[in-house]
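Quiz preparation item.
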């Protein structure tokens, strides 16, 4: 008895399993599949592979979540065999497959995944004993299920065997027919198979005719199987050669060729097909989630697109931090001794620069201006600071340390800062105990303010009223400033020059709180909300909105860990999104699936580069090179390069195509001139004839295109029939033998009427 074990860590969004199928060849006795979570084995299904091939329902529906393990065991017996049996695709070889049917939330759906490794062999010591107990199968069921594996020894049936080999060239069984239709109608992209083949080009009309022929053969198969020889096992082949020849011509509209590198030892892998629909998903490979941080209060991107994190080190905002007059009560702790501003490589979370030691007590908001200066707020100090990226001392300080107030020179727990990239004007949201937006000149002079507190008696907040203006997003495209009006659960937008109210964005799915917002040039507005109150259903999540319409385009949540109190969000023009959580003390990275399709994807040791181009097949090549740690170019330069790259490519290609033509014409003109000079009119006549022949040949060759078949056929040892196809035996990949609360923000908010939480 030999066990074949397979196990992989699942690294995707939750999926729900509802059916399974098992497959081996003749020696398989039992195949079992499990979900392993926290050491507990939950049966998905177990079945004898000698029973007819079918999907069986999962008796008790099973869900699979991030970092669960999916495991399967096939038990084989060598009884009756006198020779060694190897893994392979023929009937005399063996294979072990456990197929799962599942569904997922549509926006996270992955249409195809495979697991081919054993991530943890030691775990199988704890596999339930039922996985080792065969299921008895009656002999008649064996014949039905494995007729195509039987070795025919009756000489009287030899003629039938010969006849069957002809029949199988003409007949498709019903399963193959539906398999063909599913390929034509269902698949959108190629998937990775163990046995590779070279798909050949086929004219669409020929393919349609071939499919019509398949339908006729399907009807023919039904007639033949109705006769007495229906029981002859030789007529019941698992797959048909003709089907594979047709199948090999099928190529979905968008092809991807993958080159795979074997995963590292001990690592399981999941491979997926990507879709082109816009959707935000967590980048699960990003190591930034594992950084040791304090309460993460602010995030921003600098001009070089590096991620800047503002955190509280070993200080915590809790119910003991302030008195009833909002005066900080833990001054005796001193300022935070750790660097509170961290600059990280957005790709690999490597620390590039750090600062802010012994400056702050309770960091909150963060913004970076176009010159790379950091603008931060401290709710304990009640101040706003401007710091240069390399300066140890602040360049500008607004407010009076440790003195809350509501006049022009005081703040009361200011929350965020925004700087106009055109005018340099500074906007401060103030704050937890004031309900206003204040504008300052670039040098810190007071300009104006607007906003007032929400009237609790009216029941509904009016335009320009705030209940903790918590986060700012400057919209230079529209000359607007948008404010996350946290406790009113809405976003308000105002005219930059006057503070005039323009619009409100509010959705039921926001719940009671909107914590932070971020705008991306081009019209996308990102936001994160707060935890729902007891009995409320709105989930804590991220939102992507069309700024012009306010419509929600997408929502997103992390796979690793979960949002507890997402406190800030920042997004870049390429739709990369970072979310910082003040309770989880973590930073997540998200990216649009569009972007993820155009980057190097590394999963469990497999690195695959995927590129989509219309009417072009680009073979993805493996790279063992580590991810580049070079800083990203400046944001403005990156934007210009992005706009210019298409034009440059077009000009370059056009130039390369024109140069040979120009050179050829120059040569012809030169020859003609020489002929005219030497031979006169007669020479000119000869040149016309000669150049006509040359151009004629060029046109003839150009019209015919590049024919690789003729090219190979012209060399010794090559046939004009093209490339030989490798037969693959359907979904099991068999083959014929012949084919070889900030203040309480960090605390749970009480039911209404609640005291506003902090952070």
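Solution:
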């Amino acid at each position: 008895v030999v066990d074949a074990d397979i196990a992989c860590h699942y690294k995707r969004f939750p999926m729900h399993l509802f059916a399974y199928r098992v497959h081996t060849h003749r020696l398989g006795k039992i195949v079992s599949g499990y979900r392993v979570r926290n050491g507990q084995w939950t049966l998905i299904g177990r079945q004898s592979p000698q029973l007819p091939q079918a999907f069986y329902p999962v008796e008790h529906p099973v869900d699979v979540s991030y970092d669960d393990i999916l495991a399967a065991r096939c038990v084989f017996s060598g009884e009756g065999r006198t020779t060694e049996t190897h893994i392979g695709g023929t009937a005399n070889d063996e294979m072990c497959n456990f197929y799962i049917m599942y569904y997922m939330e549509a926006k996270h759906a992955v249409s195809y995944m495979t697991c081919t490794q054993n991530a943890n062999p030691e775990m199988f010591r704890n596999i339930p004993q039922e996985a080792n107990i065969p299921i008895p199968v009656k002999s008649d069921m064996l014949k039905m299920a494995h007729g195509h594996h039987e070795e025919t020894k009756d000489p009287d049936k030899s003629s039938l065997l010969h006849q069957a080999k002809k029949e199988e060239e003409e007949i498709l069984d019903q399963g193959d027919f539906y398999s063909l239709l599913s390929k034509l109608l269902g698949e959108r992209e190629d998937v990775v198979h163990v046995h590779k083949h070279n798909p050949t080009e086929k004219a669409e009309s020929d393919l349609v005719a071939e499919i019509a022929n398949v339908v006729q053969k399907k009807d023919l198969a039904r007639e033949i199987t109705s006769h007495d020889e229906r029981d002859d096992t030789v007529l019941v082949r698992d797959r048909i050669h003709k089907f594979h020849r047709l199948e090999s011509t099928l190529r979905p509209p968008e092809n991807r060729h993958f080159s795979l590198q074997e995963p590292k030892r001990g690592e399981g892998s999941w491979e997926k097909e990507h879709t082109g629909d816009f959707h935000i998903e967590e980048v699960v490979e990003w190591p930034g989630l594992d950084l040791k941080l304090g309460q993460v209060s602010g995030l921003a991107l600098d001009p070089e697109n590096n991620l800047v994190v503002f955190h509280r080190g070993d200080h915590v905002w809790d119910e003991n931090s302030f008195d009833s007059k909002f005066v900080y009560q833990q001054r005796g702790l001193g300022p935070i001794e750790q660097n509170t501003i961290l600059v990280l490589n957005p790709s690999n979370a490597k620390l590039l620069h750090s600062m802010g030691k012994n400056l702050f007590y309770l960091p909150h908001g963060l913004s970076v201006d176009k010159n790379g200066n950091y603008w931060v707020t401290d709710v304990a100090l009640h101040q706003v600071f401007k710091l240069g990226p390399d300066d140890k001392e602040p360049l500008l300080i607004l407010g009076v340390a440790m003195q809350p107030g509501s006049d022009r020179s005081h703040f009361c727990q200011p929350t965020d800062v925004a700087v106009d990239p055109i005018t340099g004007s500074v906007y401060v949201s103030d704050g937890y105990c004031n309900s206003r937006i204040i504008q300052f000149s670039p040098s810190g002079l007071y300009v104006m303010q607007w906003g007032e507190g929400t009237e609790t008696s009216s029941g509904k907040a009016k335009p320009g009223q705030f209940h903790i203006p918590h986060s700012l997003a400057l919209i230079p495209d529209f000359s607007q400033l948008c404010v996350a009006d946290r406790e009113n659960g809405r976003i308000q937008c105002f005219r930059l020059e006057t503070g005039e109210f323009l619009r409100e964005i509010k959705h039921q799915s926001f719940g009671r709180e909107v914590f932070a917002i971020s705008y991306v040039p081009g019209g996308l507005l990102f936001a994160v909300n707060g935890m729902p109150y007891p009995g409320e259903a709105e989930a804590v999540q991220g939102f992507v909105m069309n700024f012009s319409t306010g419509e929600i385009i997408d929502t997103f949540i992390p796979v690793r860990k979960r949002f507890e109190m997402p406190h800030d969000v920042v997004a870049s023009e390429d739709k990369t999104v970072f979310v910082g959580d003040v309770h989880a003390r973590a930073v997540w990275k998200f990216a649009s699936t569009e972007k993820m399709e155009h980057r190097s994807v590394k999963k469990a040791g497999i690195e695959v580069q995927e590129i989509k181009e219309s009417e072009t097949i680009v073979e993805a090549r493996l790279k063992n090179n580590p991810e580049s740690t070079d800083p990203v170019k400046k944001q403005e330069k990156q934007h210009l390069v992005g706009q210019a790259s298409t034009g440059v490519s077009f000009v370059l290609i056009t130039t390369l195509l024109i140069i040979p033509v120009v050179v050829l014409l120059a040569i012809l003109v030169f020859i003609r001139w020489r002929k005219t000079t030497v031979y006169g009119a007669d020479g000119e006549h000869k040149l016309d004839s000669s150049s006509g022949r040359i151009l004629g040949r060029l046109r003839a060759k150009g019209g015919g295109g590049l024919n690789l078949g003729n090219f190979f056929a012209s060399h010794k040892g090559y046939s004009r029939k093209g490339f030989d196809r490798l037969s693959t035996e359907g979904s099991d990949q068999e083959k014929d033998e012949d084919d070889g609360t900030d203040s309480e923000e960090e605390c749970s908010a009480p039911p209404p009427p609640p005291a506003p939480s902090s952070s």
